[in-house]
């Protein structure tokens, strides 16, 4: 793994010394001014979109309301909609083409919520809107509204100035399950795309290139089959499928000590049987295996498969497995990142006011988190780390990064030091902090998209970097097979049960100026804490 990192650093250094020749090539200033003004003119639409998607609170594979809402806006604005792409009911694309020729630029961000993280926005107290329901504890309600605003602004400039090219918007469905983007790539959704811009919510405003310090991963569910029997009257006649699952877990936990420092692995038992006096005939355990390289991910996957078979033999059961998702290691594109960062610097951080800063401080103090103000300066352009990787989270945008030149722009729509995958990360996501961050992010995306549409050399440099640097280190080698299918059954039961309760909290912009107003929350809500 260290050899791979040295190859990557060496290739990036060689590329940097050679120079790209496009550092200052960009769209005309007048185009960028028009796009910036267009995004500002749609600030109200941004607020409504962000608040609406927050209120839908849909987890992976259940983003039906989100899909209908966002595609409705895009269709009204001249985009061609295709739903159900890659065999996933809630996945879609929205395409607009102007003129003939020109590059095809993909614009995407994640849309799904997280189970159990329902939260009233604008308050620092843990207050679920619907107890036990999903919520946006990662802030994924903000990314696609950003992309819609950016696309509308770019489309307006293209039509006014006769700029040729194609825009393709797409949502990251079920990202929290790492369950779709590898299928998008496998099924050809990005064929013909020249470059992709992806966004993710943050308290920062930045981008980067080279191999990420986060991990790729594979998601696998192992199902053990045994034989039921009376748990007290004749336990010897049964073969416990739960024993098989638990033996696998015990084995994996002992093996952890002897796995690379870069790995992360975790599991939940999704089916442990029915009741204690029946020997479980069926049991399932769901694993995430994470590592930094394709080879590392496959090694963990192979170890897990071997361990499951051994556990089945020990328990007298059988085991089958299903790959539920995959995320390739991430690799950002240097020419795209450099162009985007110049635009991030030009846009700058949102103008936070005293209420925004007071609100941020209130959230941090109420939840015992480190107090830090909303940031006043954009972050740095990051390159490959020289540190030994020690593992971390995953995002299946990595698969698209190996299909087409891609970057992630992190935009400042949340408060510093909130806890990821936690209700604290949802508290600001339908407030002015989120709205202002999305407007800033939409400007950076629109300006970078215009650079790509009007600067053929930038597209060429991005593609050459991918070939000469990225592909020199590794080749795309996912665990996913042609036989694997998207796990679209996930979260169906919980949403069938909870959606009627969630619908009572859907945002109604015809009646309320903001979602906070609809919920009766005063901003910045400091006195109430």
What features would you describe in this structure?
This protein has 529 residues and is α/β, with parallel strands linked by helices. The chain has two domains: 31-212 and 329-384 and 391-479, Aminopeptidase (3-Layer(aba) Sandwich); 216-327, 2-Layer Sandwich (Alpha-Beta Plaits). It is 40% helix and 16% strand. The chain has 15 helices and 14 strands. The strands form four sheets. The chain has a six-stranded mixed β-sheet with strand order 1-2-4-3-5-14. The protein has a four-stranded antiparallel β-sheet with strand order 9-10-8-11. Strands 6-13 form a two-stranded parallel ribbon. Helix 1 runs antiparallel to helix 13 (456-473), helix 2 (29-41) runs antiparallel to helix 12 and helix 7 (241-255) crosses helix 8. The radius of gyration is 24 Å and the shape is globular. The model has no long low-confidence stretch (mean pLDDT 95).
Average residue-wise pLDDT:
95
If you consult CATH, what is the topology of the largest domain? Answer: Aminopeptidase
Strand content: 15-25%
Distance between the termini: 49 Å
| Biggest sheet details | 6 strands, mixed
Give the name of the CATH architecture of the largest domain. Answer: 3-Layer(aba) Sandwich
Please, how many domains?
Answer: 2
Number of strands: 14
DSSP helix fraction: 25-40%
CATH class of the largest domain: Alpha Beta
GO cellular component, one term: cytoplasm
InterPro entries: Amidohydrolase (IPR017439), Bact_exopeptidase_dim_dom (IPR036264), Peptidase_M20/M20A_hydrolases (IPR052030), Peptidase_M20_dimer (IPR011650)
GO molecular function, one term: dipeptidase activity
Protein name: Amidohydrolase
């Amino acid at each position: 793994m260290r050899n791979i990192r040295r190859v990557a650093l060496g290739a990036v250094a060689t590329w940097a010394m050679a120079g790209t020749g496009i550092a200052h090539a960009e769209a005309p200033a007048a185009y960028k001014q028009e796009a910036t003004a267009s995004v500002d003119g749609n600030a109200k639409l941004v607020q409504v979109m962000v608040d609406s998607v927050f209120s839908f609170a849909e987890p992976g594979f259940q983003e039906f309301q989100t899909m209908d809402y966002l595609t409705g806006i895009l269709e009204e604005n001249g985009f061609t909609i295709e739903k159900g792409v890659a065999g996933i009911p809630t996945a879609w694309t929205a395409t607009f083409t102007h003129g003939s020729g020109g590059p095809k630029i993909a614009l995407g961000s994640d849309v799904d919520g997280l189970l159990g993280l329902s939260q009233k926005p604008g308050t620092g107290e843990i207050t679920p809107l619907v107890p036990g329901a999903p919520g946006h504890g990662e802030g994924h309600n903000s990314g696609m509204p950003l992309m819609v605003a950016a696309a509308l602004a770019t489309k307006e400039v293209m039509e006014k100035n006769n700029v040729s090219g194609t825009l393709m918007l797409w949502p990251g469905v079920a990202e929290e399950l790492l369950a779709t983007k590898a299928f998008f790539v496998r099924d050809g959704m990005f064929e013909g795309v020249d470059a992709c811009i992806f966004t993710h919510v943050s308290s920062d405003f930045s981008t980067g290139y080279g191999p990420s310090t986060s991990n790729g991963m594979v998601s696998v569910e192992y199902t053990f089959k045994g034989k039921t029997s009376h748990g007290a009257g004749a336990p010897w006649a049964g073969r416990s499928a739960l024993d098989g699952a638990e033996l696998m877990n015990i084995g994996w936990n002992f093996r952890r000590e002897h796995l690379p420092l870069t790995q992360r692995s975790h599991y939940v038992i999704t089916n442990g049987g029915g009741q204690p006096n029946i020997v479980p005939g069926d049991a399932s355990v769901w694993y995430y295996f994470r590592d930094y390289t394709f080879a590392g991910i496959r090694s963990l996957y192979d170890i897990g498969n071997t361990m499951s078979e051994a556990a089945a033999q020990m328990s007298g059961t059988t085991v089958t497995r299903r790959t539920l998702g995959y995320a390739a290691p991430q690799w950002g594109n240097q020419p795209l990142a450099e162009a985007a960062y110049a635009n991030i610097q030009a846009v700058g951080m949102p103008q936070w006011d005293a209420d925004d800063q007071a609100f941020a401080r209130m959230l941090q103090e109420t939840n015992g988190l480190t107090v830090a103000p909303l940031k006043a300066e954009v972050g740095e352009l990051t390159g490959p780390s020289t540190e030994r990787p020690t593992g971390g989270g995953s995002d299946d945008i990595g698969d698209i990064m190996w299909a087409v030149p891609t970057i992630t722009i992190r935009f400042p729509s949340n408060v510093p030091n909130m806890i990821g995958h936690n209700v604290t990360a949802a508290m600001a996501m339908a407030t002015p902090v989120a709205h202002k961050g999305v407007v800033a992010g939409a400007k950076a995306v629109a300006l970078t998209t215009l650079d790509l549409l009007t600067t053929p050399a930038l597209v060429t440099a991005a593609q050459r970097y991918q070939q000469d640097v990225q592909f020199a280190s590794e080749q795309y080698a996912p665990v996913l097979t042609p036989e694997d299918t998207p796990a679209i059954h996930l979260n169906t039961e919980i949403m069938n049960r909870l959606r009627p309760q969630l619908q009572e909290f859907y945002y109604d912009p015809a009646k309320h100026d903001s979602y906070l107003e609809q919920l009766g929350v005063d901003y910045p809500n400091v006195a109430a804490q």
